[in-house]
Amino acid sequence: MLSHLPILQVILPLVAAPSCMLIRRSSLVWFFSLLVSAGALVVSVLLLQQVIDSGPISYRLGGWEAPWGIEYRIDLLNAWVLLVVTGLGTAVIAAARQSVQREMDDLRQTLFYTLYLLCFAGLLGIVATGDVFNVFVFLEISSLATYALIALGRDRRSLWAAFQYLIMGTIGATFILIGIGFLYMMTGTLNMADLALRLPELGSSSTVLAAFAFIVVGVCLKLALFPLHMWLPNAYAFAPSIVTAFLAATATKVALYLLVRFIVTVFGIDFSLTSLPLQSLFIGLGLVGVFVASVVAIYQVDIKRMLAYSSVAQIGYMVVGIGISSVVAMQATLLHLFNHALMKGGLFLALAGLVYRLGSSRIDAFNGLGRTMPWTMAAIVIGGISLIGMPLTVGFVSKWYLITAAIESDMWLVALLVVLGSLIAAIYVWRLVEAGYFRQAPAGGDVTVGEAPLSLLVPTWILIGANIYFGIDTRLPVEVTGAVAQYLLGGIQ
Amino acid sequence: MDLVLDIVLLSLLLTTAVAIAWTRDLFSAAMLAGIYGLLSASFFMTMGAVDVAFTEAAVGAGISPLLILATLALCGRKQRSDRKRALLALGLVATVGALLVAATLDMPAFGDPTAPAQTHVAPRYIQDSMAEIGIPNIVTSVLASYRAYDTLGEVVVIFTAGLGVLSLLLGMRGARETGTALQAIPRQHLVLRMAAKVLIPPILVYALYVQFHGEYGPGGGFQAGVIFAVGFILYALVFGLDAVRRVAGNGLVQFLAALGVLIYGSVGLLGMATGKNFLDYSALAGDPVSGQHIGIIVIELGVGITVAAVMMLVFYLFSEQLQDRNDAPEQLSPGRAG
């Protein structure tokens, strides 16, 4: 069975999803989804262990060897991302039941879990595969499921948000498909490793360059890199709370993985950095994204939307790391991928608890929250501190590595701007603290408001606790991402 | 001759595309989209891609205009315009177009026997697929065995799309289990009723033929599923939604949509149970080639079931919405839409 781990990672949720439609009872379906997600998490832990012990794993689907058949190829990079996605996916689904009951009618709950598993399987499929067309197929699965999940939000504006994302996401996916088509035309293969062998022979032909441009822009649309982020704030703000937590913790991370995979593995870092001014483009857009999105976040009234803009800013940091393109910078990006998933997963789950009790995620709902919902408020504060990047939280670790990388590459201005960006984050996090602890709940308001239900609070605190734990004991993420970055870029530096 | 045909087809495609973008009447845009599908199918034919042409004819020219029309029946046929956005879109399209043109500069010529697409993976498919899989249609060998996992993914995409529509429209305004959402057309329309009655059985038989003949000629589960669903949809258009739901109700089509995916997935898991890799059919029978054959037949069946069920599900959900909207006089009536 151990030799089948790569495919089990994806096929478990993929086959479980239609099975949900046969189970139908929503409480059973929730439990089933939780079991499946936990199973996927176990598989990803075993996979990472196996890759660390004995190097990359290849799995031939249908028994056909690549490049004739499709290959699953698990190396350090995607084993790491698989662990992040399954870990966060499991934590979010564990918290889902009561929040979903509150925000959706009975008819839709089973559909919700089915779509959730489909989205989960789609994301895992994108990460696990070693075949570029297979990436596109699973991108479609996860994207379609995401559009439907966003549209399940209570607010009718969720329909518009989902439609906006559907149009932008479809353009992104089409661009990726066009790029893949060009690659096949020029090399006759769809296998990533095979492409990596055959592309350098072509030099910089205009078709390959166009393929590169289409794929990078398409992936950046899915990644919501500034200025292609316009779909994200609405999508996060109006989606059901659980969906926001799931997307914020996993979907953009997978898009970031895809960007790294195409730039480093498929096209090769040398081609990627020399054929287009990618280095300055990524650093520039990343930093502008950090500042614009952080400043916009300060002025948001809805906290879900505020954190959504903050996500756009955090994506900026990750892309800056790719732009610097040294081993340490890549490590900073991969660390931040994990750390940001922990922060936003925890924060959005805490918000789900708030919405569960108060039916709102607006800033005035925070007034007096330190007294009425102390645990939820404390979780939000710690998550916020981690977002700023204060010491003893994971946010500090990734920023530290990013700044170190910038200084090592003599990019002092970049290092300075990263620090400044964190200060802006402090402003919007402070607004929450101020409302929660220094303002009174409206007089005559609902005095029965209590703490969020335990089923939401426990997963929230597991993620928030992880923010602190991995901020102090940094061995696991730092060692793994260090090895990944070395594996990706070590050859040239 | 080929060149003339290409020029004619491509200029027709271009004209249709521009007309779709130009017209403010969504009803004509939907009709033009159907024509665009048919033209693309013809163009694929001239390129020798028979299977793709078949799918495009069934989906692009067949079912998708039908679903667009069902949408128009709900939302009206007028487009609101926004000049500023149009200019922005035009700019974007021009940029993308320029990039696409630039990409053609270094492309190998169409049909060039030395092009990488012909010399790398293709020779094995062409030379060995008969010995390895044992069916004459190489396209089916690639889709259903060499790259069967992609095809599983595509079936899941369709399943996901169906669920997406279901999650949006389930229990919305007009929907009711026993309502008379899409009415049968009146009895005096004998020609329509007779034509439908004569057409539906051959459509269903043809769908089965396409389903089970996919190993030998163009066809397979995707096309067959769409054609099968069209038979039912035609029945609904003429005899009403209730009549067709007595044969295949909402619950049944939802069940079948999931079942098709499960059939496909189970064949894959069976491969693992026989000690091979996921979706390796070679251990399903005594010798590997018959194993491949059995595997392909079963997974194609799964594809056909899910595709047909999802198409019917989507059509049901759309037409259940029609009842309420009929009251608004300025809206397009379902009779004209269908």
Cα-to-Cα separation, first versus last residue of chain A:
38 Å
Structural class of chain B: mainly alpha
Structural class of chain A: mainly alpha
How many alpha or pi helices of chain A? 20
Strand fraction of chain B: under 5%
**Most extensive interface:** A-B, 63 and 60 residues
Q: Could you tell me how far the N terminus lies from the C terminus of chain B, measured between alpha carbons in angstroms? A: 38 Å
What are the segments of chain B in which pLDDT stays under 50 over at least 5 consecutive residues?
Answer: 174-180, 327-338
Specify Rg of chain A, calculated over alpha carbons: 21 Å
Task: Give a brief rundown of this model.
Chain A has 493 residues and is mostly helical. Chain A is 78% helix and 2% strand. Chain B is an all-alpha fold and 338 residues long.
Structure description:
The complex is a heterodimer of chains A (493) and B (338). Chain A contains 20 helices and two strands. Chain A has 493 residues and is mainly alpha-helical. Chain A has two domains: 1-276, no CATH class; 306-493, no CATH class. Chain A has a two-stranded antiparallel sheet with strand order 1-2. In chain A, helix 14 (327-358) packs antiparallel against helix 16 (374-388) and helix 14 packs antiparallel against helix 19 (454-472). The two termini of chain A are 38 Å apart. The relative contact order of chain A is 0.09. With 338 residues, chain B is mainly alpha-helical. Chain B has a domain at 136-338. In chain B, helix 3 runs parallel beside helix 13 (288-320), helix 8 (148-169) packs antiparallel against helix 12 and helix 12 runs antiparallel to helix 13. Chain B is globular and about 55 Å long. Residues 174-180 and 327-338 of chain B have low confidence and may be disordered.
